[in-house]
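Below is how a single chain appears once it has passed through the pipeline. First comes the sequence as given, then the structure the pipeline wrote out for it. We keep one example in the README because the format questions we get most often are answered faster by looking than by reading.
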Amino acid sequence: MKKIMLLAVTLLMVFALAACNLPIGQTGNNESAVQTQVALNVALTQVAGTITALVPADTQTPQPTVEIPPTLTPTITLTLEPSFTATLAGVWLTLQENTNCRIGQGEPFNIVTTVKEGNMVEAVARNPNNDYFYIKNPNSASGFCWMWGRFATLTGNITSLPVFTPMPTPTQATPTPAADFDVSFNGMTTCGGDYAVTVKISNVGTLTWQSIRIVLKDRTTDTTREHTADVFKAYSGCDAGVSQDDLTPGESGLVTTVPGYFNYNLNGHDLKITVTLYSKNGLSGTSVSKSFNVTP
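Resulting structure:
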C-alpha cells in the first residue's frame, strides 16, 4: 500500500513539473499546449481516483479489539467446622418424668424434693443394686438425696461411683386402733316391779369392745345403780334377748342394765347415764366413756 501511494505522489509531482515547463506566450503551440494540459488534468484525475480507491477513507490505524470477558460471580463454598459435643464429667441422670428425691431409698422415706422432667442431676454415689443414686439436690446448694433411677437416662460410668450401704428402712409404727362408740337411750323395761334401762351401742372405731360398765344416776332421787358385764345382752321384760360376746368395729348391740335395775318406776325421773367400754374382759384394757342425760 505504501509503495502505491509513493508511486502516485511521484507521478503527480512529475506531471506538475511538466505543466510548469510548458512555454508561455507561444500561440502556435497553444492548441497543442491546451491538449497537453487537458491530458495532464485527465491523468491527474485518474491518478487521484486511483489513490482514492486504493486508500481507505478512514486512514486511522485500527485499534485492536479487546474482548472483556464477562464478570464472573465467585461462588463461595463454606466449609463447616466439625461440631464438638461437650461430655460432662461424672455420672448424670436425665429425668424422663417427674421423680421424687427422698432421704432414703423407697416410699417409706420422706420426700426431700421433686425433680422435674427433663432436668439433669449429678450422682455422687449408688446403692449395691445400682437402682438408686445419691444425687446433689438441684434445689439446694448443699443438699443430697436418694433418687430411683427407673425414670432416668444414665450418662457416665456408674462403676466410678462409690457404693453407699442403704440406710435401714424406717420401722412403720403400727397405728393404734381408734377406740370409739356411739350410745343412745333405747327405752325402759320392767320385770316384777323392777325397772331397767336399755341403751343402744354402736362401735364406730377400729377397736373391738369386750366388756361394759353402765352407771345410772337418778338425779331426781339421788340414787345410783351400776351394771357390769363381759357380754352385751338385752332384756324384754323378764326375757333375755340376744347376747353378744363383743362388739367388733361397725357392729351394734343392745344392753339392758340387769343387774343395775331400780325397784321403782323411773318414768319422769332425770337420769344421767354413763357408759364405759373396755377392750378386754374384766373391765380392763383400753377404755372409753360417754355420758348423756335422759328423762324416760
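Residues 30-54 form the longest helix (25 residues).

See the next section for the split statistics.
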